[in-house]
Amino acid sequence: MSDNYRSREERRRAMNDNKPEGKSQGKPKKKKKGGLFRKIVAAVLLIGIIGLIAGVGTFFAMISDAPKVDDSVLKNSFSSKVYANDGKTVVKEIGAQKRTYVQYDEIPQVVKNAFIATEDVRFYKHHGVDFYRIGGALMANFKNGFGAEGGSTITQQVVKNSFLSPKKTVKRKVQEMWLAYQLERKYSKQQILEMYLNKIYFASGEVYGIERAAEKFYGVKSVKDLTLDEAAMLAGLPKAPTTYNPVTNPENATKRRNTVLNLMAKNGFITQAEADKAKQVDVQAHLAKQTESTSKYDVFIDQVIEEVKKKTDADPFSAGLEIYTTLDTNAQDYVDDVMNNKVVNFPNDKFQAGLVVVDNETGGIQAIGGGRNRVSGGLNFATNMRRQPGSTIKPILDYGPAIENLKWSTGQPIKDEEYHYSNGTPIRNFGRNYKGWVSAREALGRSLNIPALKAFQATGADKAKEFATGLGLKLDEEDGEAYSESYSIGGFRTGVTPLQMAGAYSAFANEGMYNAPHTVTKVKFPDGTEIDLTPKPKRAMQDYTAFMMTDMMKSVVNESYGTARAVRTPGLEIAGKTGTSNFSADEKKRYNIPDAGEKDVWFNGFTPNYTISVWTGYETAKDGYILSPNETGMAKNIFKHVITHISEGKPKGSFKQPDSVVERSVEKPTGKDLKRPSGSTPSSLITKEYFVRGTAPTKVSQTFVKKEKEEKKEEKKEDKKEKKDNKDVKPKITASYSGGAISVNWSASNAASDTTFTVTMSSPNGSEQLASGAGAGGKTISNPAPGATYSFTVTTNTGESASSSVKVPDSSDQATEDDSTKPEDDGTTDDNQNEDNSNTDQNNGSDQGDDSSTQPDDNQNSNNGSNNSNNSGNNSGNTDNNNNDSGNANDGNSGNNSNNGGTTTPPADNGGSDSGSQTPQTPATPSTPATPATPQQEPTTEN
Questions:
Q1: CB-CB contact of 785 with 922 (8 Å)
Q2: Which range among 21-35, 329-343, 577-591, 842-856 shows the weakest confidence by mean pLDDT?
Q3: What is the sign, positive or negative, of the torsion defined by CA atoms of 620, 625, 631, 633?
Q4: What are phi and psi of 330, to 5 degrees?
Q5: 3-state secondary structure of 851
Q6: How confident is the model at residue 765 (pLDDT cuts 50, 70, 90)?
Q7: Is the dihedral of CA 904, 905, 908, 911 positive or negative?
């Protein structure tokens, strides 16, 4: 056995050794084909079965409480109630009263085709739900974003508007599909299309149903009379009734109508030639004149209806809703009075205005002024009219972004100078002048364009766009163009509405929190379902930006340079911005509009509680232009009246400074950097500005410190010069006795016009001041004490002085000779002293005395104090007479002696005329100042 075994083992080995290399030495096991695949398929099938069971179960669970298809609901409508902001007052009930039902056979084929091509091209092929369309809608939404395309069929739309709430949930969508299937089982396609065309909403003013729409827009008696272009226009309206309204938005309406015509041609309902021909028709060519006037609160309720439809997809005219709004009936009634010419005086019937009142804290619209002389469904100048905002855009695109991103202060220096856009196009201010360095506050207050553009450029278009978008202004998306630098001063193609501007400005008053302006707070459906439609607040800017921009806009109202001083209202803190826009050169030429004619005038303003945006102007250029003061001031006038009324009896509030902001005193801008004032800065050049905390300037200005040093240096220089000049002033004084009186005269060489003199006298009776004042002069001392010495000193305001004295002779010596003295030697030279007894007058360089050989007798009576200066030297027997160069006429009296026994009679104080009678001798008293001599004056006599 062992041998056999061994030989067999060896035999096996030998056989294995002889096998070619690389081949398997043993026979491989065969695997069962498809084993793994079958397992995968089985798993998928199992999961599918489980999923199907779960899905079916979920489906039936979802539809278990679905409403039943009710004929009365399908063909009848239930009115909706609209409540004011108190939640109790029903301001209007809207619904079926304006319905005109039309049968399927009465609807022309062109109308049916237009709606089917637009809303549900496979209407006759599906059974209520079009899965092909759902798939296409999913792909479109995946590519273009959610909501890019809807998948609902006409049947589903009938179900949704009749039975279901507008909540966008999976359950509601499942119920919608289930009920659509049920509806198709119960009604024919013709009946379903008839229901749809009679229930659909077309326009404000409760216009719904195809028959009513045909009458409203085209004035036809029957829907049968509609043409192809008209049918296409009506078929395009339900998607967005306000946006595509041909009365108020012809441009958008034309695009929408042409889209419908293209769809009709694409799907074989008309030829391309027919479509092209219909496109050539002006969208407004066949419109009927809108004559139906609006009723109370219609303007506000039009906005309510639009919001409900947009946010819920429900039809307010047939869904039986309870709609709760933000309407303040008191405010709305007053705004209506304004629009009806009961508050302000509009210049003419064509002049228009639009305004919106918004609650700052909630964004709730309190009142809407849609325009003057409006008709139902007409243009709403507050919510639909888009115009260039002018300078009211500056806080939003220029200064707001600069504070937000660059942390500019309210005093940010900006140079207002000759300037241009980046492409080289010049930009000018309204006044065609420049202010130099100004603060951002002043630039906004004066509405300067050049600083606004510089602010826009400093921040950049992207940041400006981001800031505006946060305030609800998606300008480039709506205009179809990128932000350009002209946007900085309101140069848009299509513009904005007062509704948008009121919402944007309210965020400044609300500490930077933006609430989208809205009219509806919630909607309650017949089944009890409630939907909260109040927008959620979001932060649009930092609190420092909101506060600082608000304070800058307060300067627009409060400062002397502000453009909105007219809106000042006692007791109200108001901020805001004015704005105007101009006509194009083509419009001016076509309608003969003067250069000063304006197209739009705005005022957007707010208090801590309310924001109001007011637009004024004309609907078209051919209707008129704004020129008169009444027209240009109308927007501000309307604002002031409305804000005053709605603020009555309510807390006024105030704008609170946040902790992120500090106030500092700075010097008014003179360059690119702000600096703190120094002790030398004039108070008129110091102002207070707000800064983001941590950015206030710390450097102290040296501008006026340097100026003060320079001024002091100059003053010292002037003082030195003045002192030098004063040293050259040499005062002179002479004193002489003659005829019983002392004559004193003073003057100064090199005296300036402002040189003043002070003269004092020292006598036995003490010291006293004789005179003080400008210019040279003289005095006469009557009745001096015999034998006494009288000293006189003259001092100038420059500190220089001179003295003179005279001794009065005893009584025994007076009859023969008068004493005269020379000035005391005080270091000055008396130019009047004549050693040779000559009578040369040093004052005017001409001979004033008549020094003849024959002298008048001592007893000769002189004239009564009226003698001229020539008599000053005519003293009888006076051999040592001093000349008087003062030119004082009183000098002539010094030699007038009476004839009464040789006794001296003192001259009278009135000028020295002799009395002619003897009087007792009295102590010397100073007389009135001598009168300057008049050359060649004839002597006179006083009786």
A1: no
A2: 842-856
A3: positive
A4: -65, -45
A5: coil
A6: confident
A7: negative
Q: What is the mean pLDDT of residues 302-317?
A: 87
Residue 627: pLDDT above 60?
yes
| CA distance linking residue 404 with residue 546, whole number of Å | 9
Tokens representing 820 are: 């005269």
- Is the confidence at residue 350, as pLDDT, over 60? yes
Q: Is the pLDDT of residue 683 over 70?
A: yes
Dihedral of CA atoms 379, 384, 388, 392 in degrees, nearest 10, equals: 120
Cα gap 541→522, rounded to integer Å: 28
CB 213 within 8 A of CB 232: no
Question: How many Cβ atoms from other residues are within 10 Å of residue 304's Cβ?
Answer: 27
Q: Is the dihedral of CA 613, 619, 621, 624 positive or negative?
A: negative
Helices 543-558 and 498-509: crossing angle, nearest 10°?
110
User: Which range has the worst mean pLDDT, 210-214, 332-336, 497-501?
Assistant: 210-214
445-503 pLDDT, tens digit each: 999 999 999 999 999 999 999 999 999 998 876 555 678 899 999 988 789 999 999 99
The pLDDT assigned to 901 comes to 37
Q: How far is C-alpha 295 from the geometric centre of its chain's CA atoms?
A: 36
Question: Which residues are within 8 A (CB) of 267 and not within 5 positions of it... i.e. 6 or more apart?
Answer: 117, 121
The answer to whether 209 and 99 have CB atoms below 8 angstroms apart is: yes
Measure the CA–CA gap between 851 and 839, rounded to whole angstroms: 7
Instruction: Look up residue 411 and give its two tokens.
Output: 């005093």
Contacts of 453 (CB under 8 A, 6+ apart): 398, 419, 421, 427, 485, 488, 489
Statement: residue 335 has pLDDT above 80: yes
Only one residue has tokens 């096996």, namely: 12
Which position has the token pair 């006469």? 780
pLDDT at 599: 96
Q: Which residues are catalytic?
A: 119, 391
Instruction: Tell me how many degrees the CA angle 600-602-604 measures, rounded to the nearest 5.
Output: 160
Q: Rounded to whole angstroms, how far apart are CA atoms 217 and 246?
A: 8
Closest CA to 914 of 906, 902, 923: 906
| Tokens found for residue 546 | 């909101």
The pLDDT of residue 776 is: 84
What is the distance in angstroms between the CA of the first residue and the CA of the last residue of the chain? 198
747 in Cβ contact with 843 (< 8 Å): yes
DSSP 180-228: HHHHHHHS-HHHHHHHHHHH-EEETTTEESHHHHHHHHH--SSGGG--H
How many angstroms separate the CA atoms of 144 and 629, rounded? Answer: 51
Q: Can you give the pLDDT at residue 477?
A: 65
3-state helix, strand, coil in the chain (%, to 5): 35, 20, 45
